[in-house]
């Protein structure tokens, strides 16, 4: 306990420690590829908690995997090449398996040559570290609970399949962990162990489809059972949770359809000599809707009572010949009806019409020019379309894969479609006898305009597919969470500031929070959303209670609303907030309050974070740790009380701890700080008052060479609310948005990140009201050099940056990444990444405007940078890419050309072919280097880069890129 108090005191005062006594060498962009760190997020503990495996190594280069004994901390290291690997322990914690890839340079070379980089599998015995290596392994799995086997599927050495009969299967090796015996099965395409690990279901896909089928191997007896043979492809093997039945799909070519036709297969009574096999295709119109078939895009699964199988159906596209044949049949039928009608009418005009129609079907007699039959390449946009044509086009692939949830009742051999194009998905109750679905269609047109989303909620009977309207026009922007009780009798949902429980049988609705003396409306959500919810963690396992958050406290509320218990000790006065539920019981479908439960917490005043524990069968949450650090979620070893968590600070990279005490006492550090050097001297939390009168906070990250009493050049980085990350560590990296905090603090900059609170219809002005006072408060600390402050933001932060420099001259330089600059023109443009319009973003999301500009012109103009462009005196870099699918490229062009016309200092960087952020590493490097060169010039007085002062040929690289070490890295791309 004394140690923790001392550590807490040190961390709280960290920002005061003068680090100038240590000689600091700033990081360069050339250092990033060699920066070594531990991938703590992917660290994996064995089920018995006695072993921990994790990967470490440089950002770009060859990695190592460490296996550490958590008791003795004895460790073993293995070189794993240039690629990260999944890590897997068997159920008995006696073996660990992982991949070894080729070295980093070889992987990069193979990528350029479009060659595969084949992997080796290492299988390590934890008893004596004896290892066995398997080459060219594509996939591996331990045999679940039984844990006596490992299955290895190998890469195909043959050329890529060119037709449907080449065969997609490869060798599958079964290795017995106890006696080291090996069994090879050829041409395996798909496989899966059941829960107990005693059975293996696998499919064969051989050349020429010879011997294709699905098989069941009993790993205890060695007996293999043929489930089904066919000249077809079998895939998507899917065991039920209990491991007592499995289902899969079979596909065969059908000349009537462009894509294979799928058959559903269900297998149960798996321990019988001849397992029970059920097959269903349902192509007949009386079974599945005409034109539909079983979908390939979902894995079918058994109901819990093994009486039905759930699966998806999708449209089947007919081949051209078959489609034309069907069309001809329709034309013949129509022509015959018209002809009969015309004869009966004895009309000369009708007889002529029939003659033309019938003649047009005969190529010999047709007078229609072939060119007239060609379709123009065009799109019709209609104001009545529920979805914009751009949205339909963008979402075409998703729509093609859309499948309608359906069920096959095996006993009655009946098909039931549970969803359709309006009720697109069904959420099943735990008993799988009912479900609920959301029908957006009555409100889809309006919601695609203003972003305010509503839906009707229907209760669906699984056996018949019949529906009952349960909730009409439920407002989804406030909360999208609606969940069944474990008893399947009730649904929890949120509406108009309160939580309700719906009785699915009577459809009665009970307001369960009206008598609780608190508000469940979020205090911090300042979007144009009516009464946004604070959040819920769902039902308790017994179905009697739900766990609901207000803005600070956690409540256990009875499902009938007759009682409620405050689980937190009046945290509103302490300003403590639960930020997340840590699920240490992954097999539990709901929160079991008879077991210990963990939550992540934050002190909203100090931004200290920690972990809270709700002991089993208790009604009071205890904070077990709260420090001036950032804690990750708690994880528990599967079979033992060993608890793992990470902790980091701005000065210490993520470290991993283990405690065998549920209150996390006396934790053992298993992974220490991996940083090679100090990147920041800590962080300071600043309180300030905005121009709107709100008390807000900002985080000031100190430069690594910080000396008390000295002022430093400062980058102000903005988005929305950022202070909850006060104690986070920044990893040096090439950023997609250009800015990396660690690189700047390492290079002698302070970094300021303020919170922004918004008023509706004033997003830009709100940023000014919050950011400018934050900068002044930071200057008042003496740490920030008032004459050398810059600002940067990307996307929404880019918008605010481009707006702020029209309202204030406190910034010496600015960089705006992908900024929207004209709210009026941007409002009706397309968000190309989804194909939808920006209107909904303005009216219900980040734009925080309440109507279109025609009814709110002053607000749109007042908050648009372009309308204040004459005020700009701050030098500006705009980064805007020509394929930006979020903020239209024309926004950057409009602002750049306006500033250029006014002879304002501005440069726009466009990375051709890139989207909203930078994905290509060479572009990430280029932008990061140019940004720092620019800030170094304006804030540190360094030499002005020529690309800024004189313009630049598009082929030229910045000075730093021409250095040999950096250029070598670029060359490797």
TrEMBL record:
Residues 346-371 have a biased composition (Basic and acidic residues). Residues 772-941 form the Peptidase S9 prolyl oligopeptidase catalytic domain. It comes from the Bacteria. The lineage of its organism: Bacteria, Pseudomonadati, Bacteroidota, Sphingobacteriia, Sphingobacteriales. Residues 344-371 are annotated as: Disordered. This is Dipeptidyl aminopeptidase/acylaminoacyl peptidase. The keyword Nucleotide-binding does not apply. Keywords: Aminopeptidase, Hydrolase, Protease, Serine protease, Signal.
